[in-house]
Amino acid sequence: MKLCRFDIPEGGADRLGLVDGDSVIDVSGALDVLPPLRWPVPPGDALVDHLDAVRAKAETLRGEGARFARTAVRLKSPVANPSKVFAAPLNYAKHVDESKSDANLHQNTHKVDFEPGETPVSKLGLFLKSSSSVVGPADGVTRADGDRRTDHEIELAVVIGQQTRHIASAEALDVVAGYCIGLDMTLRGTEERSYRKSPDGYTVLGPWLVTADEIADPSALDFWLEVKGERRQTSNTRELTVGIRDLIAIASSYMTLYPGDVILTGTPDGVGPVVAGDTMTCWIDQIGEMDVPVR
Ligand code: MN
Questions:
Q1: pTM of the predicted model, to two decimals?
Q2: What's the 155 CA to ligand 1 centre distance in angstroms?
Q3: How far is ligand 1, taken at its centre, from the CA of residue 262, in Å?
Q4: pLDDT in tens, the chain (295 residues)
Q5: Buried b (16+ CB within 10 A) or exposed e, 167-188
Q6: CA of 57 to the centre of ligand 1 (A)
Q7: Contact 251/265 with Cβ under 8 angstroms?
Q8: Distance, CA 128 to ligand 1 centroid (Å)?
Protein backbone atom coordinates (compact mmCIF):
# COMPACT_ATOMS: atom_id res chain seq x y z
CA MET A 1 0.00 0.00 0.00
CA LYS A 2 1.15 3.54 -0.76
CA LEU A 3 0.02 6.03 1.89
CA CYS A 4 0.49 9.78 1.57
CA ARG A 5 -0.20 12.88 3.60
CA PHE A 6 -1.61 15.73 1.57
CA ASP A 7 -3.25 19.13 1.60
CA ILE A 8 -6.07 20.14 -0.71
CA PRO A 9 -5.54 23.61 -2.17
CA GLU A 10 -9.09 24.77 -1.37
CA GLY A 11 -8.90 23.76 2.27
CA GLY A 12 -8.21 20.52 4.04
CA ALA A 13 -4.80 20.00 5.58
CA ASP A 14 -3.04 16.80 6.58
CA ARG A 15 -5.38 14.43 4.80
CA LEU A 16 -4.45 10.76 4.62
CA GLY A 17 -4.31 9.45 1.06
CA LEU A 18 -4.22 6.05 -0.54
CA VAL A 19 -2.26 6.26 -3.78
CA ASP A 20 -3.98 4.46 -6.66
CA GLY A 21 -2.09 4.94 -9.90
CA ASP A 22 -2.24 8.64 -10.75
CA SER A 23 -4.99 9.23 -8.19
CA VAL A 24 -5.02 9.89 -4.48
CA ILE A 25 -8.06 8.61 -2.57
CA ASP A 26 -8.91 10.53 0.59
CA VAL A 27 -9.09 7.92 3.35
CA SER A 28 -8.68 10.35 6.25
CA GLY A 29 -11.47 8.52 8.07
CA ALA A 30 -8.88 5.82 8.76
CA LEU A 31 -7.19 8.23 11.18
CA ASP A 32 -10.15 7.64 13.52
CA VAL A 33 -8.53 4.35 14.57
CA LEU A 34 -5.69 6.26 16.24
CA PRO A 35 -5.98 6.50 20.03
CA PRO A 36 -6.58 9.93 21.54
CA LEU A 37 -3.36 11.43 22.79
CA ARG A 38 -2.65 12.97 26.17
CA TRP A 39 0.49 14.62 27.36
CA PRO A 40 3.11 13.27 27.46
CA VAL A 41 2.57 11.69 24.06
CA PRO A 42 4.47 8.48 23.35
CA PRO A 43 7.66 9.03 21.33
CA GLY A 44 7.35 8.39 17.64
CA ASP A 45 4.71 8.68 14.94
CA ALA A 46 1.20 7.56 15.95
CA LEU A 47 0.15 6.63 12.42
CA VAL A 48 3.18 4.42 11.84
CA ASP A 49 2.74 2.93 15.31
CA HIS A 50 -0.80 1.82 14.36
CA LEU A 51 -0.12 1.19 10.70
CA ASP A 52 -1.86 -2.20 10.51
CA ALA A 53 -5.14 -0.80 11.88
CA VAL A 54 -4.90 2.31 9.69
CA ARG A 55 -4.28 0.17 6.61
CA ALA A 56 -7.24 -2.09 7.33
CA LYS A 57 -9.56 0.89 7.78
CA ALA A 58 -8.16 2.68 4.72
CA GLU A 59 -8.89 -0.37 2.61
CA THR A 60 -12.56 -0.26 3.65
CA LEU A 61 -12.73 3.41 2.57
CA ARG A 62 -11.12 2.88 -0.83
CA GLY A 63 -14.42 2.83 -2.69
CA GLU A 64 -16.04 5.85 -1.05
CA GLY A 65 -13.19 8.33 -0.55
CA ALA A 66 -12.94 11.45 -2.70
CA ARG A 67 -10.50 11.01 -5.58
CA PHE A 68 -7.97 13.64 -6.57
CA ALA A 69 -5.47 13.71 -9.37
CA ARG A 70 -2.06 13.31 -7.83
CA THR A 71 -1.00 16.57 -9.44
CA ALA A 72 -3.90 18.41 -7.74
CA VAL A 73 -2.75 17.81 -4.16
CA ARG A 74 0.19 19.06 -2.11
CA LEU A 75 2.21 16.08 -0.93
CA LYS A 76 3.77 16.43 2.52
CA SER A 77 6.11 14.12 4.40
CA PRO A 78 4.34 10.77 4.86
CA VAL A 79 5.94 10.56 8.31
CA ALA A 80 4.65 13.49 10.35
CA ASN A 81 6.38 12.98 13.70
CA PRO A 82 9.62 11.01 13.56
CA SER A 83 11.39 11.03 16.92
CA LYS A 84 14.72 11.07 15.11
CA VAL A 85 16.31 10.83 11.68
CA PHE A 86 19.48 8.78 11.35
CA ALA A 87 21.76 9.10 8.36
CA ALA A 88 24.70 7.04 7.19
CA PRO A 89 27.87 8.89 6.16
CA LEU A 90 29.85 7.96 3.05
CA ASN A 91 27.99 4.70 2.44
CA TYR A 92 28.64 4.37 -1.31
CA ALA A 93 32.25 3.80 -2.40
CA LYS A 94 32.15 6.20 -5.35
CA HIS A 95 30.85 8.96 -3.08
CA VAL A 96 33.82 8.34 -0.76
CA ASP A 97 36.09 8.76 -3.79
CA GLU A 98 34.51 12.04 -4.87
CA SER A 99 34.61 13.33 -1.29
CA LYS A 100 38.32 12.63 -1.03
CA SER A 101 39.03 14.39 -4.31
CA ASP A 102 36.87 17.49 -3.67
CA ALA A 103 37.68 19.62 -0.65
CA ASN A 104 34.28 21.30 -0.94
CA LEU A 105 32.67 18.06 0.18
CA HIS A 106 32.87 16.81 3.74
CA GLN A 107 35.25 19.48 4.90
CA ASN A 108 35.46 17.85 8.29
CA THR A 109 36.07 14.33 7.08
CA HIS A 110 37.53 14.27 3.60
CA LYS A 111 40.92 13.48 5.04
CA VAL A 112 39.62 10.47 6.94
CA ASP A 113 41.23 7.29 5.65
CA PHE A 114 39.80 3.87 6.09
CA GLU A 115 41.83 0.80 6.95
CA PRO A 116 41.17 -2.53 5.22
CA GLY A 117 38.06 -4.08 6.72
CA GLU A 118 36.92 -0.74 8.08
CA THR A 119 33.94 1.13 6.63
CA PRO A 120 33.01 4.79 7.00
CA VAL A 121 30.03 3.70 9.11
CA SER A 122 32.14 1.46 11.36
CA LYS A 123 34.60 4.30 11.85
CA LEU A 124 32.27 7.33 11.98
CA GLY A 125 29.03 5.72 13.14
CA LEU A 126 25.66 7.15 12.12
CA PHE A 127 24.72 10.77 12.59
CA LEU A 128 21.43 12.41 13.51
CA LYS A 129 19.44 15.09 11.74
CA SER A 130 16.85 17.20 13.55
CA SER A 131 13.35 15.79 13.23
CA SER A 132 12.18 19.37 12.61
CA SER A 133 14.12 19.38 9.33
CA VAL A 134 11.60 16.99 7.75
CA VAL A 135 9.34 18.28 4.97
CA GLY A 136 7.50 16.82 2.01
CA PRO A 137 8.03 17.37 -1.70
CA ALA A 138 5.40 20.12 -1.99
CA ASP A 139 7.05 22.09 0.79
CA GLY A 140 10.30 22.17 -1.16
CA VAL A 141 13.71 23.15 0.10
CA THR A 142 14.38 26.71 1.18
CA ARG A 143 18.13 27.16 1.25
CA ALA A 144 19.52 28.20 4.61
CA ASP A 145 22.14 30.84 5.15
CA GLY A 146 21.99 32.98 2.03
CA ASP A 147 24.21 31.99 -0.85
CA ARG A 148 26.18 29.29 0.94
CA ARG A 149 26.35 26.11 -1.06
CA THR A 150 23.57 23.57 -0.47
CA ASP A 151 23.91 20.11 -2.06
CA HIS A 152 21.39 17.40 -2.90
CA GLU A 153 21.83 13.83 -1.67
CA ILE A 154 19.22 11.29 -2.77
CA GLU A 155 18.94 8.30 -0.47
CA LEU A 156 16.63 5.38 0.19
CA ALA A 157 14.77 6.23 3.41
CA VAL A 158 13.81 3.37 5.71
CA VAL A 159 10.92 3.99 8.12
CA ILE A 160 10.96 1.95 11.34
CA GLY A 161 7.62 0.42 12.32
CA GLN A 162 7.94 -0.58 15.96
CA GLN A 163 9.84 0.12 19.14
CA THR A 164 13.11 -1.74 18.80
CA ARG A 165 16.38 -2.10 20.68
CA HIS A 166 19.32 -4.40 19.93
CA ILE A 167 17.85 -6.08 16.90
CA ALA A 168 20.05 -8.49 14.95
CA SER A 169 20.75 -7.84 11.29
CA ALA A 170 19.02 -11.06 10.28
CA GLU A 171 15.72 -9.88 11.78
CA ALA A 172 16.09 -6.18 11.04
CA LEU A 173 13.74 -5.99 8.06
CA ASP A 174 10.95 -7.34 10.30
CA VAL A 175 10.74 -3.96 12.06
CA VAL A 176 10.50 -1.89 8.87
CA ALA A 177 7.15 -0.18 8.24
CA GLY A 178 8.05 0.93 4.75
CA TYR A 179 10.21 3.01 2.48
CA CYS A 180 10.22 6.38 0.81
CA ILE A 181 12.55 8.62 -1.12
CA GLY A 182 14.81 10.73 1.08
CA LEU A 183 16.77 13.86 0.36
CA ASP A 184 19.60 14.53 2.83
CA MET A 185 20.14 18.18 1.95
CA THR A 186 23.51 19.48 3.06
CA LEU A 187 24.91 22.90 3.70
CA ARG A 188 28.62 22.87 2.87
CA GLY A 189 31.00 24.27 5.43
CA THR A 190 33.06 23.50 8.46
CA GLU A 191 30.40 23.16 11.13
CA GLU A 192 29.35 19.85 12.64
CA ARG A 193 27.67 17.63 10.08
CA SER A 194 24.41 17.29 11.98
CA TYR A 195 24.11 21.08 12.26
CA ARG A 196 24.69 21.67 8.54
CA LYS A 197 22.13 19.00 7.62
CA SER A 198 19.40 20.07 10.05
CA PRO A 199 18.04 23.43 8.88
CA ASP A 200 14.27 23.54 8.30
CA GLY A 201 13.49 21.67 5.09
CA TYR A 202 16.84 19.88 4.81
CA THR A 203 15.26 16.42 5.07
CA VAL A 204 12.69 15.73 2.34
CA LEU A 205 10.60 12.55 2.58
CA GLY A 206 8.15 11.49 -0.07
CA PRO A 207 6.26 11.18 -2.22
CA TRP A 208 4.52 8.57 0.00
CA LEU A 209 5.22 5.66 2.30
CA VAL A 210 5.40 2.35 0.44
CA THR A 211 4.65 -0.35 2.97
CA ALA A 212 7.36 -2.96 3.43
CA ASP A 213 5.25 -5.82 2.03
CA GLU A 214 5.37 -4.16 -1.41
CA ILE A 215 9.17 -4.21 -1.64
CA ALA A 216 10.52 -7.73 -1.39
CA ASP A 217 14.16 -6.73 -1.70
CA PRO A 218 15.06 -3.15 -0.75
CA SER A 219 18.72 -3.89 -1.44
CA ALA A 220 18.28 -4.00 -5.23
CA LEU A 221 16.53 -0.73 -6.10
CA ASP A 222 17.64 1.51 -8.96
CA PHE A 223 17.37 5.22 -8.30
CA TRP A 224 18.34 8.58 -9.73
CA LEU A 225 18.13 12.32 -9.18
CA GLU A 226 17.90 15.04 -11.81
CA VAL A 227 18.21 18.79 -11.41
CA LYS A 228 16.33 20.73 -14.09
CA GLY A 229 16.36 17.58 -16.21
CA GLU A 230 20.11 16.96 -15.87
CA ARG A 231 20.90 13.51 -14.43
CA ARG A 232 23.21 14.08 -11.46
CA GLN A 233 23.05 10.90 -9.36
CA THR A 234 22.38 7.31 -10.48
CA SER A 235 22.90 4.14 -8.50
CA ASN A 236 21.30 1.04 -7.03
CA THR A 237 20.93 0.18 -3.35
CA ARG A 238 23.01 -2.96 -3.93
CA GLU A 239 25.99 -0.58 -4.01
CA LEU A 240 25.49 0.31 -0.34
CA THR A 241 28.70 -0.37 1.62
CA VAL A 242 26.80 -1.14 4.83
CA GLY A 243 23.43 -2.61 3.92
CA ILE A 244 19.96 -1.80 5.21
CA ARG A 245 19.79 -4.66 7.71
CA ASP A 246 23.14 -3.74 9.25
CA LEU A 247 22.24 -0.04 9.42
CA ILE A 248 19.09 -0.85 11.43
CA ALA A 249 21.06 -3.16 13.74
CA ILE A 250 23.75 -0.51 14.28
CA ALA A 251 21.20 2.23 14.99
CA SER A 252 19.35 0.01 17.47
CA SER A 253 22.55 -0.93 19.27
CA TYR A 254 22.85 2.58 20.73
CA MET A 255 19.33 3.94 20.74
CA THR A 256 15.77 2.74 21.07
CA LEU A 257 14.09 3.00 17.70
CA TYR A 258 10.51 4.27 17.74
CA PRO A 259 7.75 3.94 15.15
CA GLY A 260 8.36 6.51 12.45
CA ASP A 261 12.09 6.84 13.03
CA VAL A 262 13.86 7.27 9.72
CA ILE A 263 17.19 5.92 8.53
CA LEU A 264 18.66 7.67 5.50
CA THR A 265 20.91 4.99 4.09
CA GLY A 266 23.53 7.10 2.31
CA THR A 267 24.01 8.83 -1.01
CA PRO A 268 25.95 7.76 -4.10
CA ASP A 269 28.35 9.89 -6.12
CA GLY A 270 27.18 12.89 -8.08
CA VAL A 271 26.22 15.20 -5.22
CA GLY A 272 26.17 18.82 -6.26
CA PRO A 273 24.77 22.25 -5.54
CA VAL A 274 21.24 23.52 -6.07
CA VAL A 275 20.14 27.13 -6.37
CA ALA A 276 16.84 28.96 -6.05
CA GLY A 277 14.59 28.14 -8.99
CA ASP A 278 15.92 24.59 -9.44
CA THR A 279 13.66 21.57 -9.34
CA MET A 280 15.02 18.23 -8.14
CA THR A 281 13.29 15.23 -9.69
CA CYS A 282 13.87 12.07 -7.67
CA TRP A 283 12.98 8.49 -8.57
CA ILE A 284 13.41 5.18 -6.78
CA ASP A 285 12.29 1.89 -8.31
CA GLN A 286 9.10 0.48 -6.71
CA ILE A 287 8.53 3.72 -4.79
CA GLY A 288 7.90 6.38 -7.41
CA GLU A 289 8.93 9.84 -8.46
CA MET A 290 8.73 13.29 -6.90
CA ASP A 291 9.56 16.85 -7.88
CA VAL A 292 11.04 19.05 -5.17
CA PRO A 293 11.41 22.80 -5.78
CA VAL A 294 14.33 24.79 -4.41
CA ARG A 295 13.89 28.33 -3.13
MN1 MN B 1 23.65 11.72 3.21
A1: 0.97
A2: 7
A3: 13
A4: 999 999 998 879 999 999 999 999 999 999 999 999 999 999 999 999 999 999 999 999 999 999 999 999 999 999 999 999 999 999 999 999 998 888 888 666 545 688 888 999 999 999 999 999 999 999 999 999 888 999 999 999 999 999 999 999 999 999 999 999 999 999 999 999 999 999 999 999 999 999 999 999 999 999 999 999 999 999 999 999 999 999 999 999 999 999 999 999 999 999 999 999 999 999 999 999 999 999 9
A5: beeeebbebbbbbbbbbbbbbb
A6: 35
A7: no
A8: 11
